[in-house]
Amino acid sequence: MPSDADPSSTQPPFAGRTIALVGLMGAGKSTVGRRLAEKLGRAFFDSDHEIEKAAGLSISDIFSLHGEADFRRGEKQVIRRLLELQPHVLATGGGAYLDPETREMLREKAITVWLNADLETLWRRVSKRDTRPLLQRPDARDHLAHLVMEREPFYSQADLVVHSKDGPHTHTVNAILKALQTWTPK
pTM (2 decimals)? Predict the structure, then answer.
C-alpha cells in the first residue's frame, strides 16, 4: 500500500459502529451474536444478561416482581450504556426494538440487523426452555404467533434483514457478514 493511501479506506463501512441484533425470542440473537463477535474480533454483549447483572435478578424475576414496564425502563438504560462502549456486537431483548427511544438510540449508534425467523423455527427453539416470561401461559404458541405479527412492523425498520434458519449458526453469521458489506450509512 502506498504511504499516502488512506488506511481507513480499507476498513469495511461498519467498522466504527456497534452491530445490534434485533428480533423475536428464539431468532438466535445471543448464539449467533457470540459467533459474529468472535469472527469480527469484537466484544459481545447480551442486553438481557447485562440487565440481570445490574438488577441481581433473572429476567423472569424482574417481570414477576416489578412488571414489564420497569423491565423496559431498565432495558433502555442498559442499552444506552452499552452503546457508549467501543463498537461491539449486541444482542438485544426481543421487545427492546419496539420502544421508539431505544430504536432511535440504536439507529444513531449502531447498525441494526433483524434476525428474521419463521414461527415454526421460533417455536421449536423457545419451547425447549421455560424461561421466557412472555410465554408463561397456556396458549404460548398462539401468543408467539401474535408477537410475530405485532412486532414485524418494528423489526422491519432495522438497517438489514437476515433470515435465521435451522442449521449451523455459521450460515447465519456468514449471511450477516455478507449483508454488512452492502450496508451504507444513511
Answer: 0.88
Check if the beta carbon of residue 159 is closer than 8 Å to that of residue 183.
Answer: yes
**Strand 110-116 versus strand 160-163 pairing type:** parallel
> Do residues 102 and 76 make contact, with C-beta atoms less than 8 angstroms apart?
yes
- Reference 28, options 165, 181, 182, 160; nearest CA is 165
101/53 Cα distance (integer angstroms): 23
Domains of the chain, start order: 26-182 (3.40.50.300)
- Classified as helix, coil or strand, 114 is strand
Q: 82 and 50 in contact (C-beta within 8 Å)?
A: yes
Hey, what long-range contacts does 48-57 have (CB within 8 A, 24 or more apart)? 48/91, 48/93, 50/78, 50/81, 50/82, 51/75, 51/78, 51/93, 54/78
Radius of gyration of the chain (CA): 17
Cα separation, 36 vs 59, in Å, equals 24
Residue pLDDT, tens place only, 103-133? 999 999 999 999 999 998 888 877 776 666 5
